[in-house]
Amino acid sequence: MAAEPALAAPLADRVVVVSGVGPGLGRALALRCAAAGADLVLAARNEERLAEVAAEVEKLGRRAVAVPTDIRDEAACVRLADTAVETFGRVDGLVNNAFKTPPLEDLATVDLDAVRAGFETNVLAALHLTRLLTPALADRDGSVVMINSAVLRHSRRTYGAYKMAKSALLSMAQSLATELGPRGVRVNTVAPGYIWAPNLKWYFKQIARERDVPTRTIYEEAAATTDLGRLPEPDEIADTVMFLLSPLARAVTGQCLDVNCGEWHH
Questions:
Q1: pLDDT digit string (tens) for 155-170?
Q2: Residue 111, Cβ neighbours under 10 Å: how many?
Q3: Pick from 193, 171, 186: nearest CA to 266
Q4: Which residues form the signal peptide (predicted)?
Q5: Which residue among the candidates 159, 162, 194, 219 is catalytic per the annotation?
Q6: Is 45 exposed, middle or buried (0-12, 13-18, 19+ CB in 10 A)?
């Protein structure tokens, strides 16, 4: 029987690469992994934000390397993967969090070039980065987590291009789990619904202004659609990702775990 993993620091002394480090979920992913004992390699286009999050990781007593990266750029991704391995000598986990919102228009009229651009960031870039890091991950029985979306669970109008991209990302993750499993690499998916983070707060504020009601009213209306009566915080999504990266999920691969406070059941 496999040895039981330590619970106090489930990512103790592991190295995790996180793409798409922004002020909401990306930052939470970095900090929760650091709090669980991991060192971080942080990737995003915004150098100032990367530096801020790296400093926060270091305040938690872990190491962080910020690598400015446009994951649509092949050379930039190669540099990211090389930097991770050269700096730490290994990679134990990868979180594909970078995302570009496809045009929210009907599929009957949406610009196809814009749809292709969404696939480049949301699907193909994640595949490319995973492929680059697969040798290092295989050396460590590593784990990959794809950040997906609750758009998988509905077919609301104007979300067609979004759902197409995220459905492709899910299928890709499942296929990679089958392909990489014999090499010891696990591949899983986390699908959040609403995340009560800066982007959603701004969006709800705009809706509230248009309707001339308090922002809290918009929040409460959205929260009422969930079983728990609230919206998930970034840390709660990040904790689920941290679990999948850790030995606590050592027998979990090819799965999609929804984190939405019960808005959708799957």
A1: 999 999 999 999 999 9
A2: 11
A3: 193
A4: none
A5: 162
A6: middle
The string of pLDDT tens digits covering residues 186-240 is: 999 999 999 999 989 999 999 999 999 999 999 999 999 999 999 999 999 999 9
Residue 67 tokens read as 């690598």
For the chain, where are the alpha helices, taking DSSP H only? Answer: 25-35, 47-59, 74-88, 112-119, 125-139, 160-180, 198-211, 215-223, 234-245
Bridge partners, 91 (sequence order) = none
CB 186, CB 144: distance < 8 Å: yes
Q: Please name the amino acid found at residue 196.
A: W
Distance CA 122, CA 99 (A): 5
What residue spans define the domains of the chain? Answer: 15-194+234-259, 196-231
DSSP assignment letter at 197: S
Q: pTM higher than 0.90 for the full model?
A: yes
For 151, the 3-state DSSP assignment is helix
Catalytic residue flag (residue 162): yes
Burial tier of 4 (Cβ tally within 10 Å: 0-12, 13-18, 19+): exposed
Burial 229-261 (b: 16+ CB within 10 A, else e): ebbbbbbbbbbbbbbbbbbbbeeebeeebbbbb
Protein fold of 15-194+234-259:
Rossmann fold (3.40.50)
